[in-house]
Design brief:
The chain is of the alpha+beta class. The protein has three domains: 2-318, Beta-galactosidase, Chain A, domain 5 (Distorted Sandwich), CATH 2.70.98.60; 332-634, TIM Barrel, CATH 3.20.20.70; 641-728, Sandwich (Immunoglobulin-like), CATH 2.60.40.1180. It contains 15 helices and 39 strands. Strands 6, 7, 8, 9, 11, 12, 14, 15, 19 and 20 form a ten-stranded antiparallel β-sheet that branches. Strands 29-28-27-26-23-22-21-31-30 form a nine-stranded parallel β-sheet. Strands 5, 10, 13, 16, 17 and 18 form a six-stranded antiparallel β-sheet that branches. A hairpin with a 6-residue loop joins strand 36 and strand 37. The radius of gyration is 27 Å and the shape is globular. The two termini are 35 Å apart. It binds alpha-D-galactopyranose. Alpha-D-galactopyranose is lined by residues 336, 366-367, 376, 411, 478, 480, 526, 528-529, 545, 548.
């Protein structure tokens, strides 16, 4: 385990739990090359893989044709302009107008213990668990110093990478591209797995084979976005949930990103990830540095399933900080789909009263409680309680809710400003816009310029006042439009290209202040549903609203795609009313409960209005949540079948770490005529342990349950589900 440097051979060996990563400093040139990342190996002298003497063209200087060499060498961090014609990671713009950098190794540091980078979200670990390698490189001509940072954990197969770029030159220089990491390898018939969607249709899985050229995902929306996700997975073409080599990459960042796979003429394949270079132009004065966000890279030799479990464990153990991280979250009821903007104290108390009698534990007051907000046309930024709606004031409402034995939570959209708001009338220049150009509206709102300290301070002050005015134990932090018309009235012209990134830093700063000041607060991030469901946000909030689509069937694909990277404990999921408000589908109340159970679990409906038969099912659902949430929150997730692939049913399982308990969820989306009961082979059990399976007469070994399987009860109708508990005996 740990990080070793073999000085004579100039090889760095990074050993994770089951993986090895090897880096070489090459010959006299001292280029930093990537030798290997894969299953754990004892040896380190496998630098023959670099094929340094094997020039694709006629050898010349140094026995190498320079350009062919740069174009085929597996760089740890490729730079622009020197002849590596693939996707690069780093480019600058000097006063003379040049952009090339050639990095050579100078020195290194190995240390133990790890914290997140200053001002950014990131992984952390103590001295016993986390080891960090810093490779300090320089470009001799400009004096730029670039430190490649690698972290590994004893208990993980993830490698975390980032880069720190120092301007050690005498002149100021623009950074025009600064990605976080790159992995070069040979193409072994890989498929590319990415996550795509739209509002209310986030993170649907797409799998395609990798071809020549660049392919990948990106966002230039100022947030990670509904449409593409900062995640890439390369899987051997025959890899599945349980078999095959798989590489996953996920960016710990919440703004613009690019994530690309590039296959070139020599069948070399390169994965790159980091901040999108479009709209990025960062001025570095002499002595200043830029820290890129961290990328998490996971290798699994046991298919996609193991990769997912590695991401889940890393995020639960080394990224999420909230005091709720290891705790059951209160079952909440949110009034958004219940009332939209049409509510007042009486309405909220009526919902709370009924909800508390059924076992629901927290009332969340969503959008519409402030300023003159009666629709989404106005008032964002005016964070003062509207006492015409909230009669008696916020503290009265919260006290009444608390008297019912319930907690109270509140919605904010801190980053936004409505043109029709007192805030905008007072500070029109606080909105992001290009002077002289009318900015585009989305949901009738503009985005606040969070690169500006006074703006962040103002919003923080308003939030703090509200949060201190009553016993508020939860905040839903929303963000309902992408950034456009990029211009800051505050930044000087030479720093306009920093706005996208500085905006994200402002968001992080505000969230950091909030959770430092209110450490017991349960924060749930949200962005028009799941447009900012990313690991950056998980550093501040242990859960994120996964999608505005609460339909149980639509949620199957959304939650399957989300869980490929993120633990179930982070996935905001609620039972809502039918016909579903997004797709009009009618599903059984039980099924809605099973699907929401594979997330944080809560309700999003008017409990005083739903059919009595549904309401009567709530106490049993509450009991189900309390019975299984520890397992779901902390256990290992196994995907068994995907409705997305088979068009009939969905099935997943969660197994406790000690393998004594498991829960299988089976959702029959469509019934199939004249069919037999389905056999499901369980996963992740202890083969030598005996288990009692719900509804089965015989006690069976884990081995039998995994190799032979169980028969599912036949379910009559569509959208039906069942939950099967498996207990060690
Ligand atoms: C977004 C959120 C919803 C709700 C509304 C309120 O769409 O995703 O859950 O909070 O905003 O305006």
């Amino acid at each position: 385990m740990g990080i070793k440097y073999y000085e004579n051979e100039r090889i760095f060996k990074l050993d994770g739990k089951d993986t090895t990563y090897l880096i070489a400093v090459v010959d006299d040139e001292k280029f930093v090359g990537h030798i290997y990342y894969g299953s754990k190996i004892e040896d380190f002298q496998i630098d023959h893989l670099l094929r340094l003497k094997e020039a694709p063209f006629v050898p010349t200087e140094n026995n190498r044709d320079r350009l062919a060499f740069y174009d085929s060498f597996p760089w740890e961090y490729p730079t622009r302009g020197i002849g590596d014609f693939r996707e690069d990671c780093l480019a600058i713009e000097t006063k003379e107008g040049h952009w090339a950098l050639k990095l050579t190794y100078q020195s290194h540091k190995i240390s133990h213990g790890k914290q997140a980078p200053q001002g950014l979200p990131g992984v952390f670990g103590d001295e016993k668990n986390a080891s960090v390698l810093e490779l300090i490189c320089e470009d001799a001509q400009t004096g730029f110093e670039v430190t490649l940072i690698y972290t590994i954990f004893e208990d993980s197969d993830a490698i975390i990478r980032s880069t720190k770029i120092f301007n050690k030159a005498k002149e100021s220089v623009y950074l025009t591209k600064a990605l976080s990491a790159c992995i070069d390898m040979d193409n072994a018939e890989y498929d590319l797995i990415t996550l795509h969607g739209s509002w209310a249709r986030e993170r649907h899985i797409q799998r395609r084979s990798v071809g020549y050229g660049s392919q990948g995902v990106f966002s230039v929306r100022g947030e990670s976005g509904h449409q593409d996700h900062p995640f890439l997975c390369l899987a051997e073409s025959d890899a599945n949930q349980d078999h095959g080599a798989v590489y996953g990459m996920n960016l710990i960042y919440s703004g613009n990103f690019t994530a690309q796979v590039h296959q070139n003429q020599f069948e070399s394949i390169r994965m790159t990830m980091g901040i999108h270079p479009d709209g990025f132009r960062y001025l570095l004065e002499p002595g200043e540095f830029f820290q890129t966000p961290e990328v998490v890279i996971v290798y699994s030799d046991e298919g996609i399933g193991k990769m997912s479990r590695e991401f889940h464990d890393l995020y639960r153990n080394h990224l999420i900080r909230s005091s709720y991280k290891d705790k059951k979250r209160p079952i909440l009821i949110n009034n958004w789909e219940a009332t939209y903007f049409n509510f007042d104290t009486d309405k909220l108390l009526a919902i709370a009263k009924e909800a508390s009698s059924l076992g629901i534990e927290m009332l969340v007051m969503d959008d519409g409680w402030f300023g003159n907000r009666s629709s989404d046309n106005c008032a964002l930024g005016d964070w003062d309680v509207n006492e015409e709606k909230i009669k008696g004031g916020l503290s009265y409402l919260v006290e009444e809710v608390n008297k019912l034995g319930m907690k109270f939570g509140i919605w904010f959209e801190p980053e936004m400003i409505s043109p029709d708001s007192n805030l905008y009338r007072k500070h029109p220049d606080w909105a992001i816009a290009i002077p002289g150009k009318t900015p585009g509206l989305a949901r009738n709102q503009l985005v606040l310029d969070f690169s500006r300290k006074e703006v962040v301070d103002y919003v923080y002050g308003k939030m703090e006042t509200i949060l201190k005015s009553a016993n508020i134990e939860y905040v839903k932090w929303d963000m309902n439009r992408p950034l456009s018309d990029i211009g800051s009235a505050y930044l000087p012209s030479e720093r306009q290209g920093e706005l996208y990134h500085r905006y994200v830093l402002g968001v992080y700063e505000l969230q950091e202040r909030l959770i430092k000041q209110f450490p017991e607060l349960l924060l749930e991030n949200c962005s028009g549903g799941g447009a900012r469901f990313d690991p950056g946000m998980l550093y501040y909030s242990p859960q994120i609203w996964c999608s505005d689509d609460t339909d149980a069937i639509e949620r199957l694909s959304i939650q399957e795609g989300t869980a490929i990277v993120y633990p179930l404990s982070t996935i905001g999921a609620h039972v809502s009313d039918c016909p579903n408000h997004t797709v009009g589908r009618i599903t059984p109340f039980e099924t809605r409960g099973y699907v929401a159970l594979a997330g944080t679990f809560g309700y999003e409906l008017d409990v005083t209005k739903i059919p009595r038969e549904d309401r009567e099912l709530i106490p049993a659902q509450v009991e189900m949540y309390h019975k299984y949430n520890d397992l779901i929150r902390m256990g290992d997730y196994y995907r068994i079948a995907s409705y997305r692939e088979n068009h009939y049913f969905d099935c997943w399982q969660v197994v406790s770490k000690d393998k004594k308990e498991a829960l299988l969820t089976y959702i029959q989306v469509l019934n199939l005529a004249n069919s037999r009961s389905r056999i499901i082979k369980l996963k992740g059990l202890d083969p030598n342990q005996y288990y009692k399976v719900d509804g089965m007469e015989h006690i069976l070994s884990g081995n039998a349950l995994m190799c032979a399987g169980i028969c599912m009860d036949k379910l009559w109708g569509d959208f039906r589900g069942s939950l099967i508990s498996i207990q060690a005996v």
